[in-house]
Records
---
Amino acid sequence: MATYDAILSRVQQPAQYIGREWNAVVKDHADVDLLFALAFPDTYPIGMSHLGLAIIYEVLNRQPHVAAERVFMPLPDMRAELRAASLPLVSIETRTPLADFDAIGFSLQYEMCFTNVLAMLDLAGIPVRSAARDERHPLIVAGGPGAMAPEPLAPFIDLFAVGDGEELVLALAEAIRSTRGLPRDQRLRALAEASPHFYVPALYREERDASRRLVALKPLHESVPTRISRAVVKDLDQAAYPERPLVPFVETVHDRITLELMRGCTQGCRFCQAGMTRRPVRERSVKRLLELAHAAYAATGHSEISLASLSSSDYSQLRALIEAMDAAFTPLRVNLALSSLRVNDQLADLPALIRAVRKSTLTVAPEAARDTLRRRINKNITTDDLLCGARQAYQQGWRAVKLYFMIGLPGETEEDVDAIVDLAHQVSAQRGGRGGEVNVAVSSFVPKPHTPFQWEPMAEPEALRAKQARIRSLARGRRVRFKFHDVERSHIEAALSRGDRSVAEAVEGAWRLGAQLDAWDEHFRYPLWLQAFEAAGIRPADYANRTWGEDERLPWDHIDAGVTKDFLLAEKHRAERGETTADCRDGRCLKCGACLAE
Ligand code: SF4
């Protein structure tokens, strides 16, 4: 019979399955009393670049009595080998079968990874449905953005932990440990009662009206919370952070040290789920960031440090931080990378401060091409800012500009679509001569839960394809290049994003038909998803393309993300009137609910 070692010699990039990376934590299971598998439902190079996973790995492994081990979605060749050899999916630290862990925690970052969750459970020999599992099986838990609108995975997950992971995971580990040995139904109830941030879907029942519309999600017991609140880390300086990041043997998406400057964003872009659900803004101090940078550099030898956040321009000590980081790390030939800056900050004095900054591509996300539509989505940048910024960028030696746009935004007109091409060419023209290089990424607007646009319909796939075709037909010259997100995948993403428990049937159906690694162009198969939705008696359009009533029960209403529904609705109405809303960090609290929720 084949062994893991024999299989590894036959699969592509075997180093992603072997563990033993620099700084990996391997504990003797005889010395711990809780085994926690951290499951990332995408491949190793993607999961190893995810900061949240690294943080939870750090928090759990700091506990002497807990062993946290990683597992990622295997590539198709590895899956086929495991199946052929009847070998289960194992952790990469100690090759322990997942079924032998006390708990498996999935990090839900993207809807198109949902089928990977089922695939990984199945590869582990664990029933995918919660109702089919018993006391012998590990507890299946999940967190991350997917836990904010969890119903499409409700039948598969025993417990969703809602909110900042480092705030939740120790309480979760303790609850798992202390309820071990209880009969499963008692255990689930004890877990649901253990924290206001734990959602145990098996303890809630959907109620629907005669037309099958969802009208309520009722707890089965009085002791179980009606709404599940989001856990919020209050002080990032006190929060655990990876001081000895793992150094993979294989190339990953981000091969560098990542420092999270702050969490949350209050600019208020009305389409942005992260901006709405991670409020309020919390900053790490310059002192703490420098400590972390020195520790991580000493422990890894990485040659790049990324200063990351949703909106780094809003970090109040940005200049002081950059000066200190530059002084400390440029002499060591460590490059600094800054993400998510406003265009004027990228071009004004910050690059001059960072001697090591690479002037390759200036990235800007105007999202819409005309000021009117940008006001509607509350995107705080004007066309004049953008053109002025691009001109400076080319003058300062930046090689190319990358622009992100969305099509299908609420209130978009034909002129807005045409203006994307015009604006991209205007940006190119700022370089003079033959024009500058401009790369344009065009995605489709997906209405996301917990945003002011959560009630809005996604544009029909045919309409989005027509908009893409229109842009292609207007594009001219080779200096400006357009790339488009796959319309069909965005359509399924929207249906999963706004799904209820009926959509879970489609998720399972799609997986059984062979859908896996749906986030990857080469693996996504739209017809298969349509078939799965049809078999479940629903259509993606019922969720993606419908306008939801403002007084309608939404499938994620039981999750309290902090920002209130009243605030989101007021923002929707302001959008319809073309009114902008200022960032509350500029002075006036808008009572969105995020701080009050604390
Ligand atoms: S409650 Fe007020 S200060 Fe806090 S994030 Fe919301 S608007 Fe800003």
Note: The chain has three domains: 4-216, 256-358+563-598, 359-436+461-471.
---
Amino acid sequence: MTVVIAAINGKGGAGKTTALMNIAGEYALRGKSVAMIDMDARNNLTTWWTDCHAKDAEAEGIEVYSHKTTKGLERWMEENARAYDHVLIDTPGEDTSIVDPVIAWADLVISPIQPSKREVLGAIDSFENVVRVNGALGRHCRHGVLRTRITVPVRHTELYRKIRPIVEDKVGTYLFRTEVFERNVYKDIHNGIGTLQMQELTEAITKARRETQALVEEVDELLTGKALKGRAE
Ligand SMILES: Nc1ncnc2c1ncn2[C@@H]1O[C@H](COP(=O)(O)OP(=O)(O)O)[C@@H](O)[C@H]1O
Ligand SMILES: [Mg+2]
């Protein structure tokens, strides 16, 4: 069965594309076939892929498609999705018209946040959209909030401490235990050098790889229903 994962947060640029690149790289490394769909008119994902191609650094097992319209997405999903183990859909920060159609296909929506009020609110919005679309279509798409670009000083802020009680207790969605730290390699991979998993194993890369493995394990747990929250029902 094809698993569809979308990255959505209408307020912010906290790392949707980066998170999907890393998750895609991890699945590909595990021998899965991965399609990535770029729904963002800024084309970050598509540009990354073109740059990777130019540098002969395409990741085996990953294909990237640019389909910016919802119609294009529908057609692509109907015709091609079942050929892949994973379809990862990247979405724009602002264009809300594509959010519902993307959720309608997704098994899991990940909302990356940096610890800023605006991005937390954006993630809550995304969760509410998932709940609404689930209700309207009788689907069971899950939702999780992913903390990204975390630094040690950030962890000492009041907002950081409030994230878990807000996300899990008040809103009632899932907060990934895995946090994505601020790391240079996550910036570097945007420059067409392939995926994180293709980089030479330095100490820094090893840490990023571990973080990503933990994230993918959590994603899989959430999808198989082992995690209690994130059901968005
Ligand atoms: N964990 C991280 N550590 C360092 N830089 C990051 C991290 N996540 C994202 N970035 C940087 O922030 C920028 C925005 O991230 P991106 O994934 O493109 O966000 P979005 O897709 O949500 O707009 C990227 O250029 C990337 O270099
Ligand atoms: Mg992006």
Note: The domain at 3-224 is CATH 3.40.50.300 (Rossmann fold).
